[in-house]
Amino acid sequence: MRITADQKLAGYPASQIRQLMRKTVGGSITLRTVRLVLRCSDFEADCVLNRLQNDGFIESVGGRLEPSTSGRALAMATAAPPLRRATASRLVADLVGRAHALNADDNWAYRVGTVVVFGSYVRGVDRPSDVDVACELRPRWRADRQRAQEDVRRETRGEPFRNMSEWASWPKLEVYRFLRARSRGLSIHELEDWILQNTDHQVVFEHEPKAAENGCRKMRRALHSGLQN
């Protein structure tokens, strides 16, 4: 997603609404948060919330308002000039490389299952505003071991969490941050059905656990055979 300097959302500069989304991704959007970020009154904050919900940027989840898929995309939107096609292709290749590296490192609590590129880049636009990428994450371990590793990732974060939602989602959020690697041209989302069903998309990475397991078995057999000889 790309925003422009003169663009407005809910009556405010798009850059300010983007900042609001960035502060609330992984948590809830309250009247107080809107008031503090936009420096407005309670009445104006309530109007902003209503407009953002009507425009699909926020949604009600369990009785509270949170950024929707569109809201999360807005949080990662850029106001920079469009990308060159070659630059966009390099960003995708680099991201796939990071996905391979992350999957090979058992210190992470999650591995990357699937990476899908969608939007203007897949449609062949010469100068896409950014590259929209959707990722499916999979737990690396099972049951108690997975929970324990998620706790380890939270403990090693190095800074306090803003709220319980961020605490709970951190083991996944850190994967998305690593994959993005501060690349201004990448907009990373959680892989959802609407992306696969309603957009032009291309799968650029898919984890193959069976192939990996078979490779490990072959290595163990080779090692065992070498020891016997």
Any overview of this molecule?
This protein is an alpha+beta fold. The protein folds into two domains: 8-75, Arc Repressor Mutant, subunit A (Orthogonal Bundle), CATH 1.10.10.10; 85-217, Beta Polymerase, domain 2. It is built from nine helices and eight strands. It has helices spanning 14-24, 31-38, 42-54, 69-75, 85-103, 143-155, 164-180, 193-198, 209-228, and strands spanning 8-9, 12-13, 58-61, 64-67, 110-118, 131-139, 186-190, 201-206. The chain has a four-stranded mixed sheet with strand order 7-6-5-8. Strand 3 (58-61) and strand 4 (64-67) form a beta hairpin. Helix 1 crosses helix 4. It is globular.
Record keyword descriptors for this entry.
single chain, 229 residues, alpha+beta, Arc Repressor Mutant, subunit A, Beta Polymerase, domain 2, 2 domains, four-stranded mixed beta sheet, 9 helices, 8 strands, globular
